[in-house]
Amino acid sequence: MNNRVKRVIALALLLFCGFALVSPVFVFSADSRPTHNRYNIVLVVDASGSMSETDPSELRFEAIGKFVALLAERGNTIGTVVFSEDVVLERPVTDVNGIEVKKEIVDEIGKIKPQGYTNIGGALTAAITLLDKGENPELDSIILLLSDGNTDMPTPDEQTLSLAQKADAIERARASGYTIHSVSLNADGTASPDELSQISNATGGLFEEVTTADDLENVYDMFYRVVFNSLDYSKNLTEFPSSGVVEGTFKVPAIGVEEINLILSGLAEDYQLTDPTGKTHTKESLRRSTYSSDTFSVVKFTEPLPGEWSYAITGVPGDKIRIELIFNTNLTAHMEVSPPNQANQDAGYLLNDYIDITVSLLQAGERVRDDALYEGFTATVSINGVENEMRFLTAGIDFIPGTVFHYQLQPQESGAYVIEAKIEGWGHVLDAGSITIDVDNTPPVFNENIEHKVYLMPFSDNTAYIDLSTAATDPLGRELRYAVVSSAYNDNEYYIENLELVIHSYSLSKGSFEISALDPLGGSVSFNVYITTVNVTMWTLILLGGGGFIVLAVLGTIAWLNLNKRFYGICYVQFFNHESDEYYEEIVITAPKRGKRRLPARKLPNIGFNAGKCYFQASGKRHVSLKTNENVFGGGVKDKRFRIDGEGFPVQISRRLESTKGIIVRFESQKSGRRR
Questions:
Q1: Among 5, 175, 481, 657, which residue's Cβ finds the most Cβ atoms within 10 Å?
Q2: Residue 306 has pLDDT above 60, yes or no
Q3: What percent of the chain has pLDDT over 90?
C-alpha cells in the first residue's frame, strides 16, 4: 500500500529561534524532474444537484484552489473528474508547473453547475483510468474525492451499475497502489459517511466528514500537510493597525525547505518579503508565483535562503488579516539494514549476529553528507515496538560510509524482528519506513492466492467460510495463524476463526483481502483472497413464482423423506490430537431418532473446521452419512459427504490429509435394521 503518508507535527515559532546555520540550498536544474514529495493527483469533485444546497457559496472551489496553490511549483501531475449522474468533465493527468496551470484547473472545475444524481462508481472508474493512462510511474498516485452524499442514481439498474463500478474501482486502486482520500460534505446530516470512509480505508487513504462547507478549507489544509509532509510554521490572525502595516519575521532552516508559502486570508493591498541578505521581494516581483482567489492569496517563494526573513503586509486599518506560513520540504529519511554475514548467506540471519541499522537524511533524494546539517536532528529505531536511540556517526569514523545514524542489533531470540526508524528535528518528523527480518527462522512460503465465489440467495444467511490453509505453507510443518492486513470490506463484515476467513455481509459486489500467514515465531508471508458475489435472488423468485409450486413440492418431499429416515443404530464421535498425550472420551449421539443428528460442537475442542455445521444423516438402513459444510478429508478422500457403515469401523475426519487433529466417527447398527 502507499507508505508516503506521513504524520504532521505543528511547528512552533520558538522551535527555530537561534537556528542560523547557513548552507547551500538544493536548486533544481532546468532538466531535473523531482520525485521526492511529489504525486500524481486526480481531483474528483461532486457536481450533483444537492451541492447547490450543501455548498451554496461554492467554498469547495476555494478549498481545492488552496490545496492546488500550495503544491510545489514543479514536479506534480494533476487530472480532474467532475461528476453528477455522469462524468461531465475529464482532464487528463498532465504536468503542473506554474501558477497559471493551477488556476486553469480550478477555474475549469468551477464552471460546472450542480445538477443531477451522484455516480461515485462512474467517477472513480474514470479517475483510475486517467491514472492508468497518464501517471508518471516514478511518482505515487492519489485520488482526492469530494462528495456530499452516497451513490444515488435515478433507476435501480443504474444504481446497481454504479455500485458495481465502485467495487471494481476499489479493487483496481488496491491492485495499483492508488490511495483514495475522501471528504464527505454532510451539511444537512442526511448522508451516511460509511460509503466514502470505506473507499478510503480500503485503499489506505484519509477520510474526513465535515458538517459545514466553511470547514472544507481546513480539511483540505490538513490533507495537504499530511500527504505532503509540509511544515506549518505559524498562524497569525490579526488586524491592520493605524499604520496599515503588519510586520513579522520567521526563520528558514539550513536544510529541507524548498519553498515558502505565505498565505494571506483577507484583504491585503500590498506585501513584500525581505530575505536574509537584505534583498526585498515586492508584490510585483512575486506576481508570477502568486495564486489569488476571492478570499486568499498564496505567495510562493522557491529556493529560499536559510536564515531570518521578514514580511510587511499593507492594508486598511481595522481590517482583519490571517497570515500563515507553510514550508514545502524536500527532506526524507532512509534506512538500511546490513545483509546476513557472508558465511551465513544461505542460512540468513542467525542468533547473536551483529546487524547494523543505519538511517540517513536525504535532501531532494540525495544523501546529506555534511555533518553540520545534522545538527539539531536525532534518530530513534524501534525493534518490535521497543524504541532505542541511534548513535550519530560522523564521516570517516567506524566502518559505515557516509554520515548516518547507527544502531547495532544483536538478536538473542529466534523469530521475526520488525525494525522501524525515524529522524526528528527542526519540526520534521521523518519516517524511515519499516523492515522485517527473520532470525534463525524459516518463514512461511507463499503457495497461491485464493478466489472464492459467493452465490447470494434469499432466505439464507449467505455466510462464506473460506479455508486459508492452502495459501501458505510452513516449511517446518508448524501450524500457521492468519491476520487481515487490509480489506475492501468493512471491519464488521468479516472475521478470522481458526483457519477460516468468515464473511457474513457483503457491502461490495466484489472485493479482496490481504492476509498475513504467521508462524509461531512471527515469520510471515502475505497472500490475497478475492471475493466475487453473484446475486441469484431474482432467478430464485422467478423460479418460485413460475413453476415454484412444483419445485417446492419436490423439495418438500425430499426434505420429508430425509427428516423421516430412521437411525437404525448409534453414532459416536471422538476428538483426537496426535501431538498431545491427552485422552478424549468418545461421545455418544443418541437423539433424535430420525433425520439429522448434529455433532456436539460445544463438547469438542478446536477440530480445525466448523463442527457446528456437521451432522449425521439417517439412511433408514444399516449405514449413515456424515455431512460437512466444506471439503475435508475422510478415509483419505476429500469430500463433504462420507458414508459411515454400521459395523462400527472408525473413520478419521480432518481438515487436511496430514492433520494431527480432527475427529473419529463411527456408527453401530442394530439387528432390527433393514438389510442393505
A1: 5
A2: yes
A3: 63
